[in-house]
Design a protein that fits this description.
The protein has 329 residues and is an alpha/beta fold. It contains twelve helices and twelve strands. The strands form two sheets. Strands 8-7-6-9-10-11-12 form a seven-stranded parallel sheet, with helices on both faces. A five-stranded parallel sheet has the order 2-1-3-4-5. Bound molecules: 1,4-dihydronicotinamide adenine dinucleotide.
């Protein structure tokens, strides 16, 4: 089977090649992102393998369909960049890597949180300048603090377990409550109450029409003054401009972001020559109370191994009708 791999990074080649060693899959490595304009690069391929920044809305799907592509597999859990209904209407099979490593993302959310609170990056940068002073590095204990978790699925529940082990009180919000988390002491509540009470809010729900700008200007204003916000889910969940205003006013004392609206203009490639063209992102990375990473929460050896294996299972399962149920979209 010929598979066009859009937005190929070096690590994709390493892990996908390794996973598919014994298979009859022939990879076409493409550096280009998938758009209606680049879809023609999949000519002659039955399947397309895409990533988070690839555009899988109707025009691209139409172009792929006309080329004879029949299967689209995502190397991601999130699928907000794919119009599932349009794909189904065209008779395309679509699948994702649903649960490759919730731990990788949950642990990264904790990393962002601890980095905001304890400021090791600031301390290290200072030490490199022979500055060993502690001023400005004052943190606080997480034990006893209230953490609001929005979305308690695979990643959110893992994040919750870690925070419980820190001795935190957890308030959660989800359209489906997780009984085992309730048993572990988690309290589900409405979003307004969660925002008003939480010292830290961490986002772990998918981006959809229901959740776009879930944290808009009004909701951000409802947060406990001086709270921290962690977003490892999707940038579109938050109104970026309003978030910047809250950082400037102190309504938010800090944010930890692995994802941000407009990230496609910066993340996953080298822009050192032209600089950061997205003004909101440029502003955020230069704020002292912001820690930002380039959508790397998934980027662990275990996660990449599992993504490659899930991708292979989706490709091989297509002909035999055995794509894992949880991966099917
Ligand atoms: P999941 O599907 O297991 O869990 C999502 C949870 O959000 C579910 O429990 C669902 O009921 C809940 N939810 C849906 N709508 C909601 C709403 N309106 N309000 C509150 N909760 C709502 O998904 P998983 O695997 O935990 O991933 C969550 C998200 O994390 C993905 O959709 C993706 O966007 C993001 N992600 C980010 C990565 C990164 O590298 N930064 C890597 C993998 C995923």
């Amino acid at each position: 089977m010929n598979v066009a791999v859009f937005s190929t990074q070096e690590f994709d080649q390493v892990y996908l090649t390794q996973a598919a060693q014994q298979s009859a899959i022939s990879w076409r490595w493409l550096n280009e992102s998938l758009t209606p304009e680049t879809a023609h690069l999949a000519q002659g391929c039955e399947a397309v393998c895409a990533f988070v920044l690839d555009d899988l809305h109707e025009p691209t799907l139409n172009a792929l369909n006309q080329l004879g592509v029949q299967l689209i597999v995502l190397r991601s859990a999130g699928f907000n960049n794919l119009d599932v209904a349009a794909a189904h209407q065209l008779g395309l099979t679509v699948a994702r890597a649903a649960a490759y490593s919730p731990n990788a993302v949950a642990e990264h959310a904790v990393t962002l949180l601890l980095t905001l609170i304890r400021k090791p990056c600031v301390a290290q940068a200072r030490l490199k300048q022979a500055d060993g002073r502690l001023n400005g590095l004052l943190g606080f204990d997480l034990k006893g603090k209230t953490i609001g978790v929005i979305g308690t699925g695979r990643i959110g529940s893992q994040f919750t377990q870690i925070m419980l082990a820190f001795g935190c009180r957890i308030l959660a919000n989800d359209v489906i409550e997780n009984a085992s988390l309730i048993q572990a002491g988690v309290q589900y509540t409405n979003i307004e109450n969660l925002l008003a009470q939480s010292d830290v809010v961490s986002l772990h729900c998918p981006l959809s029409n229901d959740t776009r700008q879930l944290l808009d200007r009004q909701r951000l204003a409802q947060m406990k003054p001086g709270a921290l916000l962690i977003n490892t889910a999707r940038g579109g969940l938050v109104d970026t401009e309003a978030m910047i205003s809250c950082l400037e006013s102190g309504q938010l004392s800090g944010v930890g972001l692995d994802v941000v609206a407009g990230e496609e203009s910066l993340f996953f490639s080298d822009h050192r020559n032209e600089g950061i063209i997205n003004t909101a992102i440029a502003q955020l990375v230069n704020m002292p109370n912001v820690i930002m990473t380039p959508h790397q929460a998934f980027f662990t050896h275990e996660a990449l191994t599992n993504i490659a294996q899930a991708t292979l299972a989706n490709l091989q399962g297509w002909k035999t009708g055995t794509i894992p149920e949880s991966n099917r979209l």
